[in-house]
Amino acid sequence: MTATMIFDILTGIFTVIGVFFTVVAAIGLLRLPDIYSRTHAASKSATLGVMFVLFAAVLHVWVDERVFDARLLLGLFFVLLTAPVGGHLIARAAHTKGVPLWKDSLQDALKEDKDKGLE
Asked: Could you tell me the sign of the dihedral formed by the alpha carbons of 48, 49, 50, 51, in that order?
């Protein structure tokens, strides 16, 4: 087995893992009961999915074309930085506007913090 074949296999594995996490995020967006759960699925699973696919692209470009593409790494960095923050802000805005939690939710930590005056 040559080194190129190993890197091709790794690229395929990272791509499949990324697609798996992206599909899990899409299913979570469709199936989860409230906006808070959905933002969690979108921010966590989709971020992991995009990161794995972008890392596979970095590996592919580096091995096959012998080029180090910093734009892909910047994309990785900005997705890692912005997606969870965006999900958090959307959930926070929904809570501030009074969007109710799912009826079977066990805890509302933000409401508890507001009641204690910690916010």
From this structure: positive
Q: Cite the beta strand spans of the chain per DSSP E.
A: none
Per-residue pLDDT tens over the stretch 57-115 = 999 999 888 888 889 889 989 999 999 899 989 988 888 888 777 777 766 766 766 76
pTM here?
A: 0.80
Burial status of residue 91 (CB atoms within 10 A of its CB: 0-12, 13-18, 19 or more): buried
Write 56-64 long-range contacts (CB < 8 A, 24+).
56/10, 56/11, 56/12, 56/14, 56/15, 56/18, 59/7, 59/10, 59/11, 59/14, 60/7, 60/11, 63/4, 63/7, 63/8, 63/11, 64/4
Q: Which residue has the tokens 């910093």?
A: 70
Residue that is written with structure tokens 């926070």 in the block: 92
CA distance 101 to 98: 9
Report how far residue 74's alpha carbon sits from residue 33's, in angstroms, rounded to the nearest whole number: 34
